[in-house]
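User: I'm designing a mutation panel for TonB-dependent receptor and want to avoid disrupting the core. Could you give me a predicted structure to guide residue selection? Please restate the sequence first so the numbering is unambiguous.

Assistant: Good idea. Sequence first, for numbering, then the predicted structure tokens:
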Amino acid sequence: MRKQRISSCRRYLKYIVLTLLFYPLSVLGAQGQVSVKGQSITIKQAIQLIEKNSSYTFFYNAADLKNTKTRNINCSGTINEVLNEVFKGSGVSYTIKGNEVILKVEGESTQQAAKHKIIGVVTESATGDPIPGASVMIKGTKTGTTTDVDGKFEVMATSSDVLVISFIGYSSKEIKVGNQKVLSVTLSDDAEQLDEVVVTAFGTGQKKETVTGSIQSVRPADLKVPTANLSTAFAGRLSGVISYQRSGEPGNNGADFFIRGVATMNSATPLIVLDGVEISKADLNALDPEVIESFSVLKDATASAMYGTRGANGVLIIKTKSGSDLEKPIIGVRVEAYVNTPIKRPKTVDGVTFMRMYNEAVTNQGTGDALYSDDKIYGTANNLNPYIYPNVDWYDEVFKNATFNQKANFNVRGGTSKITYFMNVNVNHETGMLKDRSSNFFSYKNNIDYMKYAFQNNVDFHMSKTSTLSLHLNVQLNNMHGPLTTSEGAGVDNIFGAIMGTNPVDFPVMYPQEDEKWYRWGSIVAGNYNPVNPVAVSSMGYKDTFESTVVANLDFDQKLDFITKGLSFKALISFKNWSYNSKYRLQGYNTYQLTDYTKNEDGTYNYTVNSIGDATNHTLDSFFGTDGDRRFYIQGYFNYDRAFGDHHVGGMLLYNQDEYNSNVNSSLLNSLPKRRMGIAVRAAYDYANRYLFEFNAGYNGSENFAKGHRFGFFPSVSVGWNFSQEKFWEPIRNIVSNFKIRGSYGLVGNDQVPYTRFLYMGITTLNDSPSYQTGYGSHKESHNGPTFSRFENEDMTWEVGHKLNVGADIQLFNSLNLTVDAFREIRSNILTTKGSIPNYLGAAKTVIYGNFAKVKNWGVDLAVDYGKQINRDLSIQFKGTFTFARNRVMETDEAADIRPALSAVGKPLNTLWGYVADGLYIDEADIANNPTSTLGNITIAAGDVKYVDQPDVNGNYDGQIDSDDRVAIGHPTIPEIIYGFGPSITWKKWDFSVFFQGQANVSLMMSGFEPFGTQSKNNVLEWIAEDYWSKENQNPNAKYPRLTKYNNNNNMQSSTYWLRNAAFLKLKNAEVGYNFKWGRVYMSGTNLLTFSPFKLWDPEMGGGKGMAYPTQRTFNLGVQITFK
């Protein structure tokens, strides 16, 4: 017996290894040898043995085989040889189609004798594509077949039979045969059927009608938009998710997103789980939508409590596709080419406008500094000479207006009854907006060139009817090439800074070359004005980075029905490795200044150009770096799911453990592994899908806290009532097809400690001189000795979110689905620094961390989905989401003497602080009649910003403007409202869709764009020139105050003068496609239109001066081909 088991194990092991290597070939041939051996067995038992040990499926009427005799059977050979022996003398004949065996018994009844052949084809209603593998069964029997690769079928039926045609993801159809001999059947995409099972915590499935938590699912097809990063597709498509994109730079253009807003001063990033394993936001952005089978957002405590310490910020659950038992593999190819252009590019003034504005600024201050001469202005205006009278649009010299990019995807799906597989390969090539300056001298490319490769391979071994072993492999490779502008690794941001800091008239891009040894880049040295040449900066070096991420998951799923029905066990082992390598090459460049010139008789010029610095400064510096980490994760759980009549019970008991190690041990702290462990439990009960109850809990441990505080218990409870299952609902069920209310309350944790590891430990610095100071003003004293730079606090513990959720799921007329939730969270024990100890006690150099803050977060989110098949050719669907999330700080440790208006308590997180502006001063009288400003470094004059004096705690006004007059202004910088909506229409083989997305209750603060600041003659943005205060334009509401040569601190303060409404509505996506039998061709676009009160740059980028890599508008052309 033991020998037989060893042999069996070896056989399984050999089979697994061989199929791993050759599984794509396994679908090309049918089953080989078949054997049947048994004493006194019936034909039906013999059939069952064949089905068990081969890939063949039998279709027959069970009643026809009920009275067949038993006999001894012992035969092996081909399927035909074995079936001939099994059916010998029984009157049973058979037909083999692929792996299907259809039986027919002689001497059929009169009804059976009246059967006739029905042929037909099953297609998708939306695309007209055939549906292979659809089930075609005679209702009430086991007789039937499946459609072939072309969607065609043949079946024998009587005129009174009813055919049931079904396929997963589509609404089933029943067709009365009658006298029909040829059928054309269309199946409609059924959102209800797709959503019937909802993926919940740890990837387990739960019937949607029994879910009591707040879970939002999205179809993977809705995430297939022309974008390089998956996270940029979230905005407006997922209710409860706040999402926005700040940059369009390739490799750095992912979106920030939060589930139901922000409820902590620390990390609010949700937990992201792919196939049961935690991944980073970067890993998510690299994920190809083609590999996603299901995508769920867990929002309330019931949905996320099992994750305990990691569930406070919500959870994204992503499951990748698996293979299918198909006669032939299905191969998919998708190729896209797309063009990116900036949504809105920053514009600077031309040279003539700049010089006139600069002269005006000098005149306004009366400094007597040199002005640009009329000759200089005339020569520039008339383009007399580009070296003597330069007029450079630095942005246009550095950047181009469009980039051309490509994306390709290949996947294959198939398998047999023993092994199924899914494989996907994705390649994405994205380039940047920099103009290529490579030449014989600069042999390298300075533009951004981003190559992203992704590989997903999922193999499932069906070892038996109760045992499945799965191997999931995810590989991501990213290769980034881009400009290098400093030895510290700065890139594109420095180029935008150089453009803003360099005016258009003082020097050209470069002067004529004397030889080919080096370029003579233009520049100038003049007092405090030391600009950099933006084109030279963009070409001075490059950086290459390569990173790879490999995640390998091994799953084992075992049904334990032999112990008790409904019991199963699942184990997961996962290994993840991330590595990063960088290479920086930086080359110095030479700059030159025009000092004199002469004009020849023939109209040509001779220039005297002097080198600035060392003319041979061509040093080449190289820098190399490496980084990496690895994670090992194990998880195992028992799951129980069983119905006893109308009573349904479920439960789970889970254990997990996670270990993180750095591959680069640069310090002792970095070399120590990080570990987590936890236990999770779930218990659920429902009666007739009507009365619902669920309990979830997580018990987790984390190294981030001291002993005694490392473990936390996070329970939740939820209930639901499905009214539409009640008898009294029957009269209105045709109107309100589904109505369920639900509620939950629970605790969730957050152990994402900021700053550094082991924060609860103290740090003492010895012999710091001076160590600390006591007293203040003239009484300040310095002391030497040890300094407590970080105070020990072993009482630090978890952040705890107390989450309450009330929601309803409603369906009207079997076509309009509405899900609405109201939520509230109190996040306590938030880790912050202590601010109430005054510095005069010697605490200026001491940081004390502790659980000092509490935040309240509340709101509502809803999702709408409507779908209707108008007729055979026309169908329409509409989807919409709305999310409102608002927070307020309830407690935090602040200075004892802080003014209430400056206290964070009662204010939102991400609050903007500043002065309340009252327009611009009109004249000297206006200045004299208002509070005195202490903010300026130059004398206040007409055209400067006027501020409102704020009262103190007693309601008194001090008559001056200082830092105590700052208050919370505007909305937070993270939007409180995100929404999206749009229809999709299919007509015959055409499909059309548009999607609008918007944000509201959000502000941005403009800053950092002051012209000429610190005598630097900085560049001037075009919008300033259009409307600034001047003697000719004494408008107290002008867009910009008066011009000054020096920085005007009074005018540049954060205030309502620079506060802007960052709300917008975008035509986020639009797509039109045409479907062929072999695939689909489509055109699409992203960020096509923007409607906003803010016009200067894309408001989604947030505050600043708009001089950053702009978000992109995309025009995409794609083709999708399917080989079946």
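For picking mutation sites, this is relevant: Residues 126 and 986 are 6 Å apart (CA to CA). Residues 1-31, 108-113, 191-195 have pLDDT under 50 and may be disordered.
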